[in-house]
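pinning this so it doesn't scroll away 📌
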Amino acid sequence: MFKSYLKIALRNIVRHKAYSFVNILGLSLGICACIAIYTIADYELSFDTFHPGGERIYRIMANVTEKTGEKFHFARVPQPVITTGRNDLTGLENIAGYIPYYATITVPGNDGRVKTFSGNVAGSGNAGTIIAEPQYFNLFSYTWLAGNKATALQAPYSVVLTKSRALQYFGKIPLSGVIGKQVVYNDSVTAVVTGIVKDWTEKTDLGYTDFISFSSLNSGYLKNNITTGSWKEHDMDAWVFVKLARGTTPTRLNAELAGLVNKYAGNQINLSLWLEPLNDIHFNADVIENPIRTANLPTLYILMAVALFILALGIINFINLSTAQSIQRAKETGIRKVLGSSKKGLIALFLVETFMLTLVAVILSAALAKPVLAAFKSFIPGGISFHLFSSSTLIFLAVIIFITPLLAGLYPAKVLSSYSPVISLKATGTQKGSERWLMRKTLTVFQFTISLLFVTGSIIITKQLNYTRSKYPGFSSNAILTVDAPRGDSAYKIRALAEKFKQVAGIERVALQWIPPMTSNSRGMQVKLKNNDVKEMQVTQVDGNEDYIPLYEVKLLAGRNLRHADTVNEFVINESMLHLMGKKNPADALGETIYWNNIAYPVVGVVADFHTKSLHDPITPACIINRQDREGSFAIKLASKGQDAGEVQKTISRAAEAWKEIYPNATFAYKFYDETLDALYEKDRQTATLMKTSMAVTIFISCIGLFGLALFTTRRRAKEIGIRKVLGASITQISAMLTKDFAALIIIALLIASPLAWYVMHLWLQGFAYHITINTWVFVMSGIIAIGIMLVTVGYQSIKAAIANPVNALRSE
């Protein structure tokens, strides 16, 4: 029986080529979107899910509140948390700590040559080397290929390598022969290989390749450069993971961690510790100096919703076209019933036909998946790729193949199987035709409502992004490089390098700073206007030396710039701070006093307001101070006027040479500040791309559905069109008659979509402190676009029907 159904379904698909093509195209686009987004979601959600007992593994996180009132979230914790936690915390199966170590790696060759390697994880800026406790290999599971797990990291200056790293360093020699060889880190740490482990093949954010023994911190170079035993904020450099014993809750451990801090940290730091689940690490972007590439979970959910919408549109297309085709198949249904087919048998036949169409659509979608992902490679992580024959992908496709025919085919199958054979064979029509036509109209309105939502959203998002690019931020960012000094280096070397940069030909100005004016990670400080004020005010802290304001061309409204100093001794404030002080005129603030940490500082200058964060956040009161202990970054203004790209690159090369004179072992890494500013809106640009792509796909799916309905309508009304032509109707009149119903559906969809789009985009714009207003013309433009698309889609069929010879339609009457 099933074999017979397959043959009949195949014949019907071949016989009705146009409808089959439209159905397959609509479904394949919806399924392709689902496959692409499933591939992205499956990739992001599968990081570090393979560890045995992973649901009980947590990372210890740190929240630090400074004396200034600034609050920071760290992935790093003080090193003593490891030893005190091991001794004092209960309910732990294991605890292990390590320190990420950024290093240039050299390996002496047998021929006397020294080979140099990057210390970063391949394809990232993350450290591939860690200084790890032996317990690390008990908490995380590795397969040992050489060496003894129990003793490999016991002795100082021992190192365990992954197999890929060992092959990279020493070539294709037996792994047992690698044991005892030497690897040198930063020209100062010589470690002996004591073990080889198999690389993790699953997706992980902990893809370390070199594991130096923790005991190496007790002597030599590492002892002098990495502080141990300190609870102070600037010595927080350890990552600590714990594995809870069964039955232990994170809440209980969080309480014990609070007791641990109270017992040992004293007054050294205002610290709170808490546990973060291993599976949440990949999605936590709200921490400082987190070396992990994080993903955005809400964006992932939005992608999934978009995929479901697009698949729904494809299914609606199928239902629309299948029910529209039902009149042509009414006689077929009547004959089958007369010959003994049951209603269940007819439903099964039509479901088999839907299954075959879906199967073809899935095959086509799978073929399109890789090109689609390749087209959007700049918006998705580099490790994402589509693997058709992976178990998870096959299961997902099997679910799609099973569910889609039920959703798309069950209603049309019931419609076709419900026809009375008497009425069908008399060719007098079908029952409930008006209700089904109403349903097709409703589904078409739904399709275009979704499409118009995306059209309107795309217009508004594009307009807002253009606004963010054009709005003056209050400072100049043109031709400015930012360069970070090695972490923790002396102020003397930093200032010496700044002077060298100033002498480089092609460099106009150099300023020392903590961070640039506008950043995703601005700093705060708590100040008072009177020494006896009880409540302190939170304002933005901007740290830069005397060259900061001139370099960024921040407009000085009154007073003067900061003077050269080694310590904070005066403030320059912005207009918002001026108003917070109750002043109207900038000159009135000069000589006023601001108290910070109970020390009085005079206001010597007032600058115009400038943005310290993206346009998502309002301009806040800000104080510019010269705080030498935080000025570890260089802002370099290039003399770009009249220079071409080649000359600019030569200037950068000369700056790199100056860098090497002070930091011969550190990499000269720079960024153009304009690129940093653009990165503030990266997620918004991705949202815009998502909206535009979704708009294109939904409009295309709606159009092919509309094309199919127009094709059906013109065929159904062929005799009516013929009679009207015989009676003198013009081509224009007939075309208008056929298109006006579809135009009405578009207008109804616009009326429904406009308030929905306004509400959704209004909520989105509330995420910007400075944003455009939503004007009526946006919705008018969306309607014009939709009607234009409809006229192009339906117009061809209308004109083709209008110019057809009426004799062909009327000769059977």
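📌 and the second one:
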Amino acid sequence: MGLAAAWLAFPAVLLLLAGGWGLLLETLAGRALPGALVPGAGFAALVVVLQVPALWGTTAALATPLAVAGAVAGAALRVGGAGPRRGTLRPDAGAVGTACGVFALYAAPVVLSGEPAIAGYIRLDDSATWIALADHVLADGRDASSLGASTHDILLRLLDSGDYPIGALLPFAAGGKLVGQDLAWLLQPYLGFLAVLLALALDVVLVPAIERRWLRAGVAFLAAGAALLYGYALWGGVKELATAALLATVAAAGGQLRGTVPRGVVARLREVLVLAVACAAVLGAVSVGGVVWLAPILAALGVFVVRLRGWPEALRVLGAFAAVALVCSLVPLTGAGFTRGLVNTPAAASERLGNLREPLSPFQILGVWPVGDFRLHPSAGAATAVLLMVLALAAVLGAAMLVARGLWGVLGYAAGVLVAAGLVAAYAWPWIDAKAYAIASPAPVVLAGVAAAAMFEVGRRWLGLVVAFVVVAGVAWSDALAYHDVALTPHDRHAELARIGQRFAGQGPTLMTEYDPYGPRWFLRRMDAEGAGELRTRVVPLVGGEYLGKGQSADIDAFAYAGLSDYRTLVLRRSPVASRPPSPYRPAWRGRWYEVWQRDQAAAPVRVHMALGSGLDPGGVPRCADVLALARAARPDGELLAAIARAPVIAASGATAQLPSAGRWEVWLGGAPRTPTAVKIDGVTAGRTGPELSYPGQWVPMGVAALSAGPHAIEVRASGSALRPGAGNSDGFPIGPVALVRAGAADGVLRVAPSRARALCGQRFDWIEAVG
């Protein structure tokens, strides 16, 4: 299935679920919604309703059946004619075109790479945690009692299960269960789906302001592709996309209030149902922060209702809305995290920056920022300044036009999210400010689009075209650079981790010495895995007594042997310079990227482990005095074990590798290629690899070559189309050197009695142990 399951089947399932719930909500509300608003309203209902079974472990498994049942009920009521809609539900061609265009925009970085992947690899590791959290809440709800001592479980406990807002993750997890695919490959399609909901809701919001259908669709498309929001999508920003989509849904739902006054309390409650559900969904997605975002929009909607119906009826509408919204918001309101968000400001300045390099520029809220990584400043400073200036002036003009025409619904959305973002920026810290800018970034594009469309519709077409050109050029340029610089997870390597996690499930505790958050946090979660450079409960010191920091990897020989004794299983990244694990560990499985070793419980205990490798050489020649001291540490009935070390030949690109013998040699490339890369030996390609990002210190297997003894010219050559996703990625690490290792070289273990320890002197080994 692969890409088809991730990018076709999964979005289709989400659309059916959200559409069905939207029809059900429409029936309960007793009034037809615009077709483009039905999926967004249904998504809001899913966010609200699925939080109820997710409260408890005993009911969490009912969340997916509940999602299906509500969607089926909504469709059945629609087919049975019980709803307010009459006639055939015909899709709006403009809305369909907008949805397809936005989804293609968000799909392009992954789909054009040819493999399922997650964007934001290396830059931000939160996606691995969101996937794990989504899976957990639909299996065990808010119950943390089943969590054990692993990196996966520690992170979930830190999120405090009952504290962290999970509303935006629930439709993702429910839809993933129905498709039956690993959630890791579904995260980016989910973000694309959220962007579609945003565009469709904006299309509805813009109806009073832009008469021409194609103009309205174009503005909604551009707003959904606002640069900073698109950049966050390429960082796995679930909450940012979900919040932006839900706020637009709130504005669109509020715009459906009409001048006709409903009769009776029940009718008035039904009238505000969709709006109340959308507001409750915002609280479910972002907890206390949702109040800040909702207040300005609701205030503008209040002005809209007063103008429509007058003060007495507006107060009645407010009362009905408050009652329904309170009921719908009971779950997020009662969560411990709802109020904790008010007081959790990080103490350290570095924590306030999060993964940013410096606070973002407030100008990024304008939706244009032509640079591949939104944390950086554009190199085209003058062009960027012109774009921002024109867009800002057009946005102000658009807002003035909305005020002059009394279009408070559209203005309520745009001004509301901008005011909310300003409030957040005034009182929060840089990491939260950046999220606020991203959530609000569609609004200036909407306002500028309103100005351009108004000019076009009143006959000032050239001026409108100039403004439209600036907006289109700015957004397109920014998104193209983000696409060009995207950092994607390595699908083949992570698929291998997923296979390991399935094959060795329940055979933990497990240690992964390479830093890759998707390993211990997700793919190896059933192996009770911990990452050496991650959060962990077991003590894993290095030989010198220090510990690996976050993001660091180390060879297995760098760890003190005593710290490894708690682990039954080791998952090690293959490398030409990697050491063999200590003698109690036996090889259990080997793939292209990883090896799995497991402790033999019957193995003799290790009294002393002496590592001999260093740097790019896994082996070394011990001092005879050290060997004799090791023999004295062994018991008379014990043994000395010496691991035979492979000898890699290391050469930089453009240098010569001197091979000691003829035969078949494994070819390895150091670093993390950002583009398709080949290793040539004597002008002949010995191996190729595609983009293969990883954290520092790793090697990529390139192939096996038959080579003669003697000198060989080494060359590393990068290639590939500049149109390929990530071709301009700047987060990789230096490429090289090249390592050649004799294929099939002996890597066994010699056994020597302590009395014959001198036989080990002068020889090259990986390590020597005294056992017994």
